[in-house]
Amino acid sequence: MGRSNNPLNKLLTKLSLEPASENEFIGGSGIGGVTVENRLFGGLLVSQAFIAAAKTSELSLHSLHSYFLRPARPNEPIQYSVSRVKEGRNFHVRLVEASQSGSVIFQMQASFTKELGGPGHQEKVPIVAPPESCPNRDELRGRNPDDSPIDVRMATPITENKVLPPEQQIWLKPTGELPEDPILHLALLIYSSDRTLLDTAWRPHADRGEHTGASLDHTVWVHNTSNFNEWHLYTMHSPAAGSGRGLAFGAIHDEQGKRILSTAQEGVMRLKS
Q1: Is the separation of the CB atoms in 108 and 65 below 8 Å?
Q2: Residues 194, 199, 226, 254: which is the catalytic one?
């Protein structure tokens, strides 16, 4: 796949980590993850850290738990150091630390496993409008959708300054074709899972004026593999918010209704004075 200057290819370039040693990797920042506060998008850190960990294990990711410790600076390389905490027969555990200019900005513990048999079930998938009939999130917010690597369609309406239930559903798909690389597909899903999750906690407080927030952590559980060249439905809800923090949970399903990921995130919620 060529690396042109469109946003998706720029993001894929950021996810192509350069090896510095057997357990150390360098990732780029900047394009593909700068927020309006000029901080790096947390989903880029989580997805890069996952790729760094995956390069040290032949097993498949089943969960990751990450903490954002300091704001990441755009346009400055990020060093990922991987510690091989456990090398079991069925499970590998990796601790990943991300640093800029010698300071640790992010930590992640990831667990990998081999395919193990056992019983299975999942919750029912909510019935929503198909992605083709849902509005693009960037267009609704007055942004150019061509500037985003992920096409986000709102299955739940956005209504400015209106109090709404703490739940929402969105459709996700890359803006271009991904190569046949399961790790890359999962990395893009993990990247996308940080989109709009904490926003869910703000929906009941839309009448409180301008606000700001930041993710404190991000957790992902992997249930199945999928082809992210197809639409995926992201269902989110926030069970509680208080003491300046909000909590949100999510589930990502493919178009056939198979549950691919479960997510959780807590973040800071503050009103601007």
Answers
A1: yes
A2: 194
